[in-house]
Each structure stands twice: as C-alpha cells, then as structure tokens.
Structure to design on (102 residues):
C-alpha cells in the first residue's frame, strides 16, 4: 500500500475555492482503480495553535493507494490535470509526501 500526505497551501483567502474544486473532483478520484482513501483535512477546531498547526490557508489531503502504479495513473489522469489547471492561480504551494509502510 502507498500512503500520500499532500500539504496544499492556498494564496491568502483562497482555500475555500480550492476545497470546492477538490470536492467536485473527489468522486472521479475515488472511482480510480486502486484508490482506497482520498480525504481533505484541516486543523481540528478547538485545538490551540502550535508548531504543528497548518493555519487557515492550508489543508492536507490524506490518500491511500493499493499500488504505486495506481498512484502514478492517478497523477496522470485527465481529471487531475483539469483540477490542477483550475486551482493553479489560487495555490501558493504543494508539498507531496509519498510513503510506504515501514
């Protein structure tokens, strides 16, 4: 199994626009062969800010894929290219961590 932690930082005030595009694209991703999980997450409400807090402009997508090949196919999928083009102007940075069980 392949795990992905994608840290997406929006330009100030643009996170909701990116999350809306994410939600629109999510069904297509979940339908991909090998997709086990694809979930957007934000800082938990009610927790005090800390060094680990992402803040109001960042969200983290937690993904699980059956194989590396499935993840690679996901990255090349037309709906992901369309999502990237749609959100490009709203995005400050993307840091993608691809992990496997230890």
């Amino acid at each position: 199994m392949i795990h992905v932690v994608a840290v997406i930082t929006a330009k100030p005030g643009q996170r909701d626009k990116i999350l809306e595009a994410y939600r629109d694209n999510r069904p297509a991703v979940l339908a991909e062969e090998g997709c086990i999980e694809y979930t957007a997450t934000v800082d938990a409400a009610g927790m005090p800010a800390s060094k680990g807090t992402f803040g109001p402009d960042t969200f983290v997508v937690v993904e699980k894929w059956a194989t590396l090949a499935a993840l690679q196919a996901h990255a090349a999928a037309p709906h992901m290219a369309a999502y990237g083009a749609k959100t490009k102007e709203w995005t400050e940075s993307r840091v993608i961590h691809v992990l496997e069980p230890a």
Notes: DSSP finds three helices and four strands in the chain. The chain has a mean pLDDT of 97. The radius of gyration is 14 Å.
